[in-house]
Amino acid sequence: MIKVPEPLEDVIVNLLRLANTKLPEDIGWALEAAAAWETNDIARSQLGGIMDNVKKAEFAGRPMCQDTGIPVFYVTGKIIPGTEDAIRSGLRKATDTIPLRPNTVHPITRKNPGGNLGKGMPIIRYRPTDDNFTEITVIPKGAGSENMTRLAMLNPADGIDGIKKFVISAVLEAGGRPCPPTVVGIGIGGTADRCVELSKEALLVPADSVNDDKDERELEEELFTILNSSGLGPMGLGGDTTVLKVRVMTECCHTASLPAAVNISCWASRRATVKISADGSAEYRQK
Ligand code: SF4
């Protein structure tokens, strides 16, 4: 039994405020490292501008980008009854008070119901477990990067070379639109829908962690080097820093399939998690 923090909607507001106003430390470190190794003056100035913007947003408690995105919530552990209602009301309150841009519209009428709500919104993924705590993670993604998501149902004969070709062309064709330097999430395997989900889940893994799957890690390292040698650079204006991290996640797939998906996150690679323990304490983190 988990004592519900009162009110749970305020925990959701805090979570959204953290995700939108403070860049995770690992992404900040990756930006600083990039500024140190950059050889291109325009690129260094772009990276400096981004880091300045991040500091000002955190100091002022304001969103680091005007596109506060569409949040996807992942709820794991023991699910607290009423979580969905709390997420919905918390999101509406956060939209009004942080504030967040009300981004959601009906896809046909383009009417905006306000509060970042509406049919199917917000997106919530549940993974119940037997743990005696619940964790809620949010990843808000702006349209500039989300619009660059790509899925390829490759032929198994295309193999690893086909996957590399697909990822490289997806990132380079996106150009400056997803506001590089980016974090590139890659899903390989599963079904078409699961593969796209995997590519977004890959963005939740901290950039300073090392993948313990050797095959995934080697692919990440190779793609990181290739993409950073492309010359695309920060904001697509040229330079040595096109990506801050490449993260691969794999799952088994049908023997006749080879799904691959790319989900790019801009430099504003936002995420935050709250762990609510059995005693009702709420602990926030961005790891
Ligand atoms: S891609 Fe990211 S940084 Fe660029 S406008 Fe969208 S949310 Fe902002």
Helicity level: 25-40%
Tally of helical segments:
8
Widest sheet: strand ordering: 2-1-3-8-9
Give me the secondary-structure category: alpha+beta
Provide the residue-averaged pLDDT. Answer: 97
**Count of distinct structural domains:** 2
**Overall outline:** globular
The unique ligands bound to this protein are: iron/sulfur cluster
- Cα end-to-end separation: 26 Å
Order of helices and strands: HHHEHEEHEHEHHEEEE
Number of strands: 9
Main pleated-sheet profile: 5 strands, mixed
Unreliably modeled segments: none
Strand content: 15-25%
Radius of gyration: 19 Å
Give your account of this protein's structure:
By secondary structure, the protein is α+β, with helices and mostly antiparallel strands. The protein folds into 2 domains: 8-22 and 64-141 and 270-285, 60s Ribosomal Protein L30, Chain: A; 30-57 and 144-265, no CATH class. The protein contains 8 helices and 9 strands. The protein has helices spanning 8-21, 25-37, 41-60, 83-97, 143-146, 159-174, 192-201, 214-228, and strands at 70-77, 123-128, 134-141, 150-154, 182-189, 243-251, 258-265, 272-276, 282-285. A 5-stranded mixed β-sheet has the order 2-1-3-8-9. Helix 4 (83-97) links the parallel strand 1 and strand 2. Helix 1 (8-21) crosses helix 4 (83-97). The model has no long low-confidence stretch (mean pLDDT 97). The site of iron/sulfur cluster has 10 residues, from helix 5.
